[in-house]
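Researcher: I'm preparing a figure for a lab meeting and need a structural model of a single chain. I don't have an experimental structure, so a prediction will have to do for now. The sequence is pasted below. Please return the structure as tokens so I can convert it later.
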Amino acid sequence: MSPSRTCSWLVPLILSILLACTANGDHLKVGYYDKTCPDLQQIVHSVMASRVDADQSMAPAVLRLFFHDCFVDGCDGSVLLDGTPFSESEKDATPNANSLRGFDVIDEIKSYAERACPATVSCADILALASRDAVALLGGPTWKVQLGRKDSRGANRTGAEYGLPAPNSTLAELIDLFKQYDLDARDMAALSGAHTIGTARCHHYRNRVYGYNGEGGADIDPSFAELRRQTCQSAYDAPAPFDEQTPMRFDNAYYRDLVARRGLLTSDQALYGCGGLLDHLVEMYSTDGEAFAKDFARAMVKMGKIPPPPEMQVEVRLSCSKINW
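Model: Understood. Here is the structure written out token by token.
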């Protein structure tokens, strides 16, 4: 075998050994790539701007990817991994299958990042940056993203099956779930505002708009329930916007919908109507968009710091959809 051919197969192996390490969530910092990949943020923004300009729905799709990544074993890029004959994929879990989108956007960003600074930028960090730009490109706030995440060397399909907020989650279930990640009620109320953009399919909101009597429950505006029943009947599993007022603008209209009992999902409306702090926050956000934007940005930084389990083996993947070998 010639020296050149020997090197060609050794390089990926050496990179894999050098990049693999144990998870550590305490080292994140703004400017992590300032010296090693100074053009990273420009690369991410350029691709995101182009893709969102072509299809605005890519913004909520990428934002949802980040949420579904962080709520399963921390923000480790595990949601991006394809399945193999030897490992399952979070993409195939019930909440994600035929639902999550935007993987090609992250892959495109990664390809440019690899050209600019090979084997340097994790897919988890790319997803964190892309989700920030997704919000900003639709008129929402921006924030400084702390970086330095590593990519997991495996996925957790079981965690994706049972560890994500469900469309029919009760308030108590939501509070308990967010608490597991050191996210308090205010964080939960603000992060739920991500539903100010994007859509949900009929099977996610059917129970809310039909209820037990076919007309919806007491916590839903009857005219809204009828509107969404018509949506369900218009096509198989028809999508409806979370925010019917400005579905592709990142603003506080989502909270005005909750106050009016026009939240799309059971888990959306659960935030309002029980009294106490959450009602106060929803009412405040519904009238004060700046307060919502500030709290949302702060909560996104906090959620982005959810670390992988300490024992998890991590690396900087060379391709976001598969581990290094």
